């Protein structure tokens, strides 16, 4: 048993660090550090192009599709270092979500067209899964796709669509049959966002930001050739997709970065002749979350190690998601609390939104999206504990 | 990074588990508990025959030298079986103290006897003051004509009533601690036996004008060695606690599958499923921290070691409390009975929380290094 990275893993980490130190543009790093998402589309796309030029555009893809062929451990190290260096997270919808589905179930034409474009950040992808009334109960979705010759005609509405205001393409789950079990009548479509009949309306969130949208489809015509795999088999592909995008589900790098920031903030905040970091009550709360993060980091590495040995079934990711998001929420809560009553200032005279409180508000989403933490507990109870 | 165990380590775990399942089932264990001594000499000798009492004795001294990982795996099995014998006290802690501090002659005298189980030694170190600081020893040793005179009180020394040899820490100067080997029948040494909450045998040790020869003092820097010994002991205690946590969760899941209420197994109710999912997450975080404690307990840097071990003890203490309390709750009235093993694991976990510095103390220790760093 050895909890530390071995020499090769450490050498890889140093290589990634060195790359990040030189290749990540200062203005992007700075904006990410300040949680300034005013240039988020450009920042994510430019960073993706830089990664692509280095050959690191898709850490998890196999080499034959232009990926790195890295091991799970290397992917974990890469993502952790990126987060620690304040690099923008890659847009998951393309690289991590639709791409694996294309590789596994897409036609050769679909693969040849879309995969290089995802790698080079030519297309911005978004996801059309949730609908009003079908969130956790995704199979209850209603958006209709009716066959008309070589096209489907789409009518319905999607919600909670993340960053779709920038999107060139959307992958959607649609209902192509309502007669049998709800899971059996769903198809998986790739849709050009410029298709007539699509209306995107941003949803203003509690922190004042716009990161999710409602999307209406009004007689939108989509070629049948844009369907992934077979008609009515979309549930299989959707489940495959949800099983992906898990190397970084615990967000260890991001939490470590925020923990360091929290300590800096607390060390700079006076309290009773000392600082918040010296205040026993507050520092104990920091200690508590730091200890849990340390444990989660080891747990995450154990899951990666087991996966590499083909030992872990997968529901372990639910555990990482729950604890990881709880820790991120707690860190943001403590950052806000360092400010005390100053955290009340939400927009100052310049109109700039105070980071800590707004982040606290925004991060309530973590335990809701991607399968709420309650759904994850159901998965653990049923898949791991066999209840 | 490598979370696998070597074949030898895996064999150690399997052997110990097999021994416990064959010789130390729950009924037998309770007979031992209710016996006059509260532990079994027969089992103890058998553990020695299996080599488990020589795990922490280096190979050059005729031992196995299994290291922290081997000790962890055996500790897991001992926690699973709720063993009452002085494995941690004698075969881990006292043995380690002797390995680190004893002279060649003392090693030869004690180590083979410890390995066979013939000799049982315990470290009598904890006092009221060590609750706050593990090196705050008030017991005093002063030189007299041909040796030392020792006075002081040691509290709740696990397995002291079974020990032939007590290793007593005592202050020899303002800033120096010595460790003294005192036979159990020394004049002036008095034991006040008690039964601990996890039904192990212990005693308060009173030393009044105890005289020992100059050769009773173990050499070396006892302050440094004591911290190292205590840390290795703490990692082993964490391993036992993890074994107990794992067992109590398994028992709870099995029970919730078979116990029917309102026409359905209670394990089918979501409120309880979520509780058990939460228990599992505590357990897995605890496992990670037990690994951390094991891998860091021999780190030569005392500060890194301190931080890792305090983090482990604090997190595992909280896990022990959550898992233990929920297990009793989910077992309903049955969880309250002595008949079911759940209550026994619950008490062992409670003892884990209270021993070796409680959760708050270790959180506090960890907090202090936050600012120092």
From TrEMBL, chain A:
Residues 126-220 form the Acyl-CoA oxidase/dehydrogenase middle domain. GO terms for molecular function: flavin adenine dinucleotide binding; oxidoreductase activity, acting on the CH-CH group of donors. Residues 232-384 form the Acyl-CoA dehydrogenase/oxidase C-terminal domain. Its cofactor is FAD. Keywords: FAD, Flavoprotein, Oxidoreductase. Residues 7-120 form the Acyl-CoA dehydrogenase/oxidase N-terminal domain. SUPFAM superfamilies: Acyl-CoA dehydrogenase C-terminal domain-like, Acyl-CoA dehydrogenase NM domain-like. Belongs to the acyl-CoA dehydrogenase family. This is Pimeloyl-CoA dehydrogenase large subunit. The lineage of its organism: Bacteria, Pseudomonadati, Pseudomonadota, Gammaproteobacteria, Lysobacterales.
TrEMBL record, chain B:
InterPro entries: Acyl-CoA_Oxase/DH_mid-dom_sf (IPR046373), AcylCo_DH-like_C (IPR036250), AcylCo_DH/oxidase_C (IPR009075), AcylCoA_DH/ox_N (IPR013786), AcylCoA_DH/ox_N_sf (IPR037069), AcylCoA_DH/oxidase_NM_dom_sf (IPR009100). Belongs to the acyl-CoA dehydrogenase family. Its cofactor is FAD. It comes from Pseudolysobacter antarcticus. Keywords: FAD, Flavoprotein, Oxidoreductase. Residues 227-369 form the Acyl-CoA dehydrogenase/oxidase C-terminal domain. One of its GO terms (molecular function) is flavin adenine dinucleotide binding. Residues 6-118 form the Acyl-CoA dehydrogenase/oxidase N-terminal domain. PANTHER family: ACYL-COA DEHYDROGENASE (PTHR43884), ACYL-COA DEHYDROGENASE FADE28 (PTHR43884:SF20). It holds the Pfam family Acyl-CoA_dh_N. This is Acyl-CoA dehydrogenase. It comes from the Bacteria.
């Amino acid at each position: 048993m050895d909890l530390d990275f071995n020499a090769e893993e450490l050498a890889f980490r140093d290589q990634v660090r060195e790359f990040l130190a030189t290749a990540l543009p200062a203005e992007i790093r700075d904006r990410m550090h300040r949680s300034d998402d005013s240039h988020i589309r450009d920042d994510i796309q430019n960073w993706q192009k830089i990664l692509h030029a280095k050959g690191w555009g898709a850490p998890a893809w196999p080499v034959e599709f232009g990926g790195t062929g890295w091991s799970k451990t290397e992917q974990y190290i890469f993502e952790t270092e990126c987060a620690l260096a304040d690099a923008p997270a890659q847009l998951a919808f393309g690289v991590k979500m639709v791409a694996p589905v294309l590789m596994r179930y897409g036609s050769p034409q679909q693969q040849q067209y879309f995969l290089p474009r995802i790698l080079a950040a030519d297309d911005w992808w978004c996801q059309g899964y949730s609908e009003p009334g079908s969130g956790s109960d995704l199979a209850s979705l209603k958006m209709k796709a009716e066959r008309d010759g070589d096209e489907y005609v789409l009518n319905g509405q999607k919600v909670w669509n993340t960053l779709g205001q920038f999107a060139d393409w959307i992958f959607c789950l649609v209902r192509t049959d309502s007669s049998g079990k709800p899971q059996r009548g769903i198809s998986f479509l790739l849709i050009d966002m410029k298709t007539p009949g699509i209306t995107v309306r941003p949803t203003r969130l509690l922190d004042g930001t716009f990161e999710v949208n409602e999307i209406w489809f009004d007689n939108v015509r989509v070629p049948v050739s844009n369907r992934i795999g077979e008609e009515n088999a979309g549930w299989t592909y959707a489940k495959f997709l949800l099983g992906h995008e898990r190397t970084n589900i615990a967000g260890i790098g991001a939490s470590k970065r925020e923990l360091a920031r929290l300590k800096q903030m607390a060390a700079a905040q006076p309290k009773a002749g000392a600082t918040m970091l010296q205040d026993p009550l507050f520092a104990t709360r920091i200690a508590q979350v730091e200890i849990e993060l340390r444990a989660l980091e080891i747990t995450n590495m154990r899951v990666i190690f087991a996966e590499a040995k083909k030992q872990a079934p997968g529901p372990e990711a639910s555990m990482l998601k729950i604890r990881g998001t709880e820790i991120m929420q707690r860190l943001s809560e403590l950052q806000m609390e360092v400010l005390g009553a100053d955290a009340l200032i939400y927009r100052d005279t310049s109109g700039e939104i105070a980071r800590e409180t707004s982040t606290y508000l925004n991060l309530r989403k973590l335990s809701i999206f991607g399968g709420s933490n309650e759904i994850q507990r159901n998965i653990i109870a049923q898949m791991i504990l066999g209840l | 990074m490598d979370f696998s165990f070597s074949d030898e380590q895996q064999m150690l775990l399997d052997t110990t588990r097999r021994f416990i399942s064959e010789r130390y089932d729950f009924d037998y264990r309770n007979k031992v508990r209710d016996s006059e001594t509260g532990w079994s000499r027969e089992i103890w000798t058998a553990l020695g025959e299996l080599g488990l009492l020589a795990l922490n004795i280096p190979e050059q001294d005729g031992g196995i030298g299994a290291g922290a990982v081997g000790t962890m795996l055996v500790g897991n099995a001992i926690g699973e079986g709720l063993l009452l014998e002085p494995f941690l006290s004698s075969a881990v802690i006292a043995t380690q103290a002797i390995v680190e501090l004893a002279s060649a002659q003392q090693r030869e005298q004690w180590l083979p006897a410890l390995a066979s189980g013939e000799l049982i030694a315990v470290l009598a170190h904890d006092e009221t003051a060590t609750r706050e600081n593990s090196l705050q020893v008030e017991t005093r040793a002063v030189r007299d004509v041909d040796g030392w005179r020792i006075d002081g009180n040691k509290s709740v020394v696990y397995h002291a009533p079974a020990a032939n040899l007590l290793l007593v820490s005592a202050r020899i100067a303002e800033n120096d601690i010595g460790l003294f080997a005192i036979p159990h029948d020394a004049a002036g040494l008095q034991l006040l036996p008690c039964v601990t909450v996890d039904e192990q045998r212990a005693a308060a040790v009173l030393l009044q004008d105890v005289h020992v020869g100059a050769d009773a003092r173990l050499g070396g820097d006892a302050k440094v060695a004591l911290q190292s010994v205590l840390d290795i002991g703490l990692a082993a205690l964490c391993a036992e606690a993890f074994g107990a946590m794992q067992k109590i969760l398994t028992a709870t899941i099995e029970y919730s599958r078979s116990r029917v209420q309102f026409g359905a197994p209670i394990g089918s109710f979501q409120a309880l499923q979520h509780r058990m999912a939460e228990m599992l997450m505590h357990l897995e975080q605890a496992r990670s921290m037990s690994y951390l404690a094991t891998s860091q307990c021999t780190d030569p840097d005392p500060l890194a070691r301190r931080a890792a071990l305090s983090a482990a003890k604090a997190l595992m203490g909280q896990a022990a409390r959550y898992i233990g309390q929920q297990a009793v709750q989910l077992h309903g009235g049955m969880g309250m009975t002595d008949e079911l093993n759940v209550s026994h694991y619950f008490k062992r976990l409670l003892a884990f929380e209270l021993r070796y510095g409680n959760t708050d103390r270790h959180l506090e220790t960890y907090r202090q290094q936050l600012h120092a760093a």
